[in-house]
Design brief:
Glutathione S-transferase Yfyf (Class Pi), Chain A, domain 2, Rossmann fold, 22% strand, alpha/beta, 14 strands, six-stranded mixed β-sheet
Length: 361
């Protein structure tokens, strides 16, 4: 799929902007602080309902305005044209697609598979486990129709069980939610484990290309309980006294995590910032590749300030990898480096300055 038109209003420094991108590579050029990242954020919001820099209400809406607006036209993977719009005040939102109201933000976002790499993306490797769970769940949301209902079912059971724990309930009262919690939690674990198993070969291959000096890479998964020794229901019962003391569930898929390792021993706490960036980028590109294998089309790929995040050698390797894809790609940067025209046959340049975007060709 690819966007054919992107418009925004009241987004950070922009009163309004309008772009007509190409299906290949779209390069956003301008000085630091010009607003390039804001355009990348607009695309990310279509796919996630939030920015990669935080919630919509956390500074994304232009001061003294009530809500931001993003409208777009796009062609899906079958070439069918669509149009959609989203208005977001930070607390409330309204959306329309193809002339009809959309009453579910997740449903709206499901039409815009977007993967973004930005200066904070190293947190996928070196940051909190929540980042890594969200990474896996994004893919499952798009490729497994039954995942989202199970995810909602589990989170409802988690919320109810945690609320009960705070009241110091009788064991039989707590047991009423244990089965619901365990069944939905086991289902989420199954989807996550299967997905990471399928992602691992692509991740290893890309890491070998980007980090050949670091030895073989691999992903390892922790279910959030001692899954190899017992099922989730047994783990809940074993952990019940501790849960009663703490007031929250201590085992389950909300505690799951995955980690990258290099050469069978180098773990995430020992990675340099540069290694963490390249591992995060490898995971993101492997996810894009796996998405194609599942859905038969590429997600939109966004890269904020890519050249400054990588040294020259790795930058070239990444661009060459991207040149073999059929994705619509958005890259922000401060200058039109010759390597872009050298590597990408379909390239469009936009100049971004405070509050304005214009075509450079």
């Amino acid at each position: 799929m690819h966007l054919t038109e992107l418009q925004g209003a009241n987004l950070r420094c922009f009163t309004e902007f309008s772009l007509t991108p190409v299906s290949g590579v779209n390069l956003l050029l301008g000085e630091n602080g010009a607003g390039k990242t804001s355009i990348i954020e607009a695309i990310h919001i279509l796919g996630y309902g939030r920015s990669f820099r935080g919630r919509v209400r956390d500074g994304l809406i232009k001061q003294s305005t009530g809500a931001l607006q993003i409208t777009t036209r796009w062609h899906d993977h079958q070439g069918t044209p669509h149009q959609a719009g989203l208005q977001h005040s930070g607390n409330d939102w309204q959306a329309r697609q193809d002339g009809a109201d959309v009453d579910n933000l997740s449903q709206f976002c499901s039409h815009f598979p977007v993967l973004s790499f930005e200066p904070g993306s190293h947190a996928l490797i070196s940051g909190a486990a929540e980042n890594r769970r969200r990474f896996v769940d994004w893919a499952l949301f798009h490729v497994e129709p039954d995942f989202f209902p199970q995810w909602r079912r589990f989170n409802r059971a988690l919320k109810q069980r945690n609320a009960l724990l705070k009241t110091q309930p009788a064991p039989q009262t707590l047991a009423a939610w244990d089965m619901e919690y365990a069944e939905s939690g086991e289902a989420i674990h199954f989807y996550r484990q299967r997905y990471l198993d399928s992602l691992n070969p692509g991740f290893q291959a890309i890491c070998h290309e980007f980090l050949p000096e670091c030895g073989p890479a691999a992903l390892t998964y922790n279910a959030g309980w001692r899954q190899a020794q017992m099922g989730l229901l047994d783990a809940l019962r074993l952990n019940q006294d501790r849960d009663m003391q703490t007031g929250f569930c201590g085992v389950g898929p909300h505690r799951a995590d995955w980690q990258a390792n290099l050469n069978g021993q180098l773990q995430q706490e020992h990675f340099s910032r540069g290694q963490a960036k390249l591992l995060a980028l490898s995971a993101l590109l492997a996810q894009a590749q796996q998405f194609v294998a599942e859905k038969d089309f590429w997600p939109i790929l966004c890269f904020d300030d890519l050249a400054s995040e990588l040294d020259a050698g790795h930058f070239r390797r990444v661009l060459q990898w991207l040149s073999d894809t059929h994705a619509q790609i958005w890259i922000s940067g401060t200058e039109a480096l010759p390597i872009y025209a050298e590597i990408f046959p379909v390239l469009k340049l936009f100049h971004v300055e405070q509050g304005r975007v214009s075509d450079l060709q």
